[in-house]
Amino acid sequence: MLGIITLIYLIYQTKATEKQAQEAADQVSEARLDGIYQQLLDYDKFVSSPENKRVNWLIANPPRRLQDIKDPAERQEFLAVERWALDYFDYVYTTLPGLLNCVPKDGRLVLPGSPEERHTCDQWVAWSQTIYGNFRYDKTLCEVLKGDESTYEKKFVRAIRESRACTDGL
Predict the structure, then answer these.
(1) Does the model's pTM come out above 0.85?
(2) Contact 92, 127 (CB under 8 A)
(3) Cβ count within 10 A of residue 89
(4) Phi first, then psi: what are they for 121, rounded to 5°?
(5) If we measure between CA atoms, which residue out of 84, 82, 94, 91 comes closest to residue 36?
(6) In this structure, is the dihedral angle defined by the CA atoms of residues 140, 159, 44 and 79, taken in order, positive or negative?
(7) In this structure, what DSSP letter does residue 118 have?
(8) Tens digit of pLDDT for each residue in 83-117?
(9) Is residue 107 helix, strand or coil?
C-alpha cells in the first residue's frame, strides 16, 4: 500500500514540476516579446524627440540613396538609425521562431494574401508584413543591408531577398 501511495505522490510531483517548468518557459517567452516591443517604443521615442526633427523627417521621407543626403553629419546620423532598424529587424526575425510555433522552417516572410498565410499564425504574418513593408518603403534600408550583408543572419538576408522587398536588388 505504501508503494502505491509513493507512486501516486511521485506522479503528482512530476506533473506539478512539469507545470511549473511550462509556466517558467511561458514567462521567459513573454519577457522576450516584451523586449521586442520595448525596443520599438524606444525607437519611436527617439524619432519623435524634438532634437531629432531632421532625422525624423528623413525616416518619414527616406532618400533613394544615402548619398542623396548632402550633409555628411546628417548622413551619418541617418545611417546610424538605419543600422539600428536593421539590427532590430534581424533580432526580431531571429527571435520569433523560438517564441512562435508557426514560423515556416525555411524562415520565409509570409505576407497577407499569400498561399502560405493559411499555414501560419497571425503573429508571423503581421511581423512579416512589418519587416517587408519597412524594406519596401525605405530603399536606403536595402542599400545599408546590401553593404553590411555579412554582418546579418544569412536566413534573414535570404528572407528579405526572396520577399523582393528591395526592388533595386539585394
Answers:
(1) no
(2) yes
(3) 22
(4) -95, 160
(5) 91
(6) negative
(7) G
(8) 999 999 999 999 888 888 889 999 999 999 998 88
(9) coil
